[in-house]
Design a protein that fits this description.
This protein has 45 residues and is mainly β. Helices cover 0% and strands 31% of the residues. It is built from no helices and 3 strands. A hairpin with a 2-residue loop joins β2 and β3. The termini are far apart. 0% of the residues are buried.
Length: 45
């Protein structure tokens, strides 16, 4: 499975065709997961 992380999900009918993430890519399922804003955190790695 391929997981695509996005800030927010948008209905397909509000996207341009070129911006739509397919349900499947070369036979592999694709899921879109809205995770909100992403930011770097300070800390020791």
């Amino acid at each position: 499975m391929i997981i695509v992380f996005v800030t927010r999900k948008v209905p397909r009918d509000r996207l341009l065709q070129e911006d739509v993430v397919p349900d499947e890519l070369d036979g592999v399922p694709v899921r879109v997961l809205a995770i909100g804003e992403v930011s770097a955190q300070e800390g020791n790695l």
